[in-house]
Model the fold of this input.
Amino acid sequence: MAEPPTSIEDFYRSIAAGRLVAGRCKECGKLLVPPRPLCPNCYSTTFEEVQLKGKGKLVSYTIIHIAPPQFQTMTPYTIGIVELEEGPKLPGIIRSPGDTPLKIGQELTIDFEPQTAQTWPKWPRYFFKPI
Amino acid sequence: MAADHPLEQWLGLTFPGLYALMATAHMHRYGTTEEQMAKVAVKNHRHGAKNPKAHLPKEITLEKALSSRVIAWPLKLYDCSLITDGASCLILTKPETAKKYTDTPVYIVGSGQASDTLSLYEREDLTTLKAASMAAQQAYHMAEVTPQQIDVAEVHDCFTIAEIIAYEDLGFCRRGEGGRLVDEEATSYGGKIPVNVSGGLKSKGHPVGASGVAQAYEIYLQLTGQAEGRQVEGAEIGLTHSVGGSGGTAVVHVYRRCG
Done:
């Protein structure tokens, strides 16, 4: 059996494979997104991998107009915090077709895109979109 | 460290973006408006215009603040504090030693510090800085004063929404009423609880590492009657509220004048 995810590298490796994973603490059951090596709830170091559905509700959002150099070609872009169905929250870029205005509380789902960037950041990307 | 690097920053979230997430949440839950946030900027610039040491000592209009370019919606240029070069210092010592230097020392009577997750997405509630709330409770408890007894306060207005949230975290008003406090001009010079009479980070400036001590310096001036054109008459009890890491850490102090 594969090693359970315990790091940000594990998190992005899964994202590259089109999967959103959490580490579930084997002691207290807390779900950690992204996974990490120590449970902040009970200090346990044993985890198992859980695949999340990637669906949730929008908690808050902002539209970035002035961006760091690496992101300037994307402006304006929307970033929100999504409360996943399984409980944990996750920040992400939100793409709304036709720039439909977002509403707090609306349902979103995750999507993935191939890594094409030639410059930093080279991390695999995920984003959320309205259901 | 000011933000969660491997997740929030790598998504393209900026520092104004973090506070914009708090602003959107506050607007949604409590009906706080962009105009109320802009009024914080107008107030602090009005205050700063009377501070000879302010970085940007000029008044602005509400229209100018509201029509300034969007940085991270709903925050605009005039919702953001400045990036400033500056320095500040204080002499911190025990009361007996202080008397060797001055006949009018200012006493730190309450001190509180608390921390929270650096990552915004992991916080329970985006409409408050829990660390600042906890630090305030500790400081009030140690000082044996209530928020209503504070005569003058310097708060960490890195963004206008941060000042509105600070009112609530410090107990100057109830949760959700920070915007109304601005509308009522309660935190303006001459109001019930003047906040950032120095101009705050918004107009006096934000030389990050020096900002906290600069707040203490302003309260020292206020409690010793040396604040000249911006003196809050008869100020006896002052407060400073300083934040790091977008609420990852917060420090609150309560001060009392000598005699």
About this structure: Residues 55-130 of chain A form one domain. DSSP finds one helix and eight strands in chain A.
